[in-house]
Amino acid sequence: MRVPFRHSARLLLATLLMAGCQSTGATAPVVSGTAAPAAAAAQPVAQQPASFPEWLAALRTEALSQGIRPQTFDRAFQRVKLSERVVELDSSQPEFTRQVWQYLDSAVNEKRVQDGRQKLQEHAALLSRITRRTGVPGEILVAFWGVESDFGKSTGNFSVIDALTTLAFEGRRAAYFRSELLAALRILESGDIAPERMTGSWAGAMGQTQFMPTVFLRNAVDEDGDGHRDIWGSMPDVLASTAKFVLANGWRPSEPWGQEVRLPDGFPYDQAELSITKPLSEWRRLGVRDLDGGELGGEGTASVLVLAGHRGPAFLVRDNFRAIMRYNPSTSYSLAVAMLADRMTGRPGVRGSWPREEQALSKDERIDLQQRLASLGMEPGAADGIVGANTRNAVRRFQASVGEIPDGFATKALLERLRQRS
């Protein structure tokens, strides 16, 4: 059943009261927008609500049971709107057709490098203080800031309450976004930010380094001492909060994220996976060298990544690369943060050549690839269009079977060879 979301304030107040919402004397929420499903996913309540007003009444009861004051809830939802645009963005299935080098070209462009260097100088004293306390380098913090919001220029202009309410009511991951919505209410309850200033992305990521509300509650810091954790407007709070989050994600002070390396002829490419770690001594034994041919330094463990097969650059990545990935679970994202940090401090970016002539496979092509690999017994896993470790290993098995270097890089030429086998 679909119900209209356009109500007058008086009608909605009456509906909420009939649904069991107790009056507190505060202004009732006003809801506007277009039609949407009455109940999108199972909610953590005994019975599915039949309408948005009933859903909102149940949310209010749950929020108050968690210590949210009635006036905090009612102010937050005073002008709430269910956003058709948020629904569209959540339900869309992006193709993810950019190759890693295209992502890096955008995320680590020359202007962003220059802007980052300026930010390092502008906030040098603050960054030095935070680094002394946490061990997270200033250039890493500024790199997160640059990649997440272009140094505060693109933080998102959606109301976080509107976005999370929409996703919690009718999104694909309603339970997840309901918990984020309740966390957002706890932030408002703490007085850190006013509802009208709580803006962010369509998915509810907030502030200059894009924290979800639960991340904010665990990691936001009042670095400037004004009594508010403000990741929207206070640079001390933004950078200190980011440092705390990165440290909590496993950052190891005084260790590098990794480095670009040279692989020897005959390198075992089935070992080039993030899930495979070896002592640096073992990588040295396998012939991995720095880009200038020198022996790898240091101790500990690392993984080798080849994000574009044997014709592209190779990277030896360590625990701090994984710490970056826990901010956003994408190897392209993590490499962008690492490379932006390196470039800002005068270190080189990627020196190897990317196979730029290779076009990315579309989602349909990736599914076709997986289905054809499965038909040959190569065990790629589910045909979901996501090229993960199982699919890369299946590609390696096929490449080995036809005499190619088994680097796991899925290309249009490889898909065509598979099609010719049919």
Automatic annotation (TrEMBL):
Keywords: Signal. The keyword Repeat does not apply. It holds the Pfam family SLT_2. Residues 1-28 form the signal peptide. It comes from the Bacteria. Residues 363-418 form the Peptidoglycan binding-like domain. Residues 52-342 form the Transglycosylase SLT domain. The keyword Signal applies. PANTHER family: LYTIC MUREIN TRANSGLYCOSYLASE, MEMBRANE-BOUND LYTIC MUREIN TRANSGLYCOSYLASE B. This is Lytic murein transglycosylase. It comes from Azospirillum endophyticum.
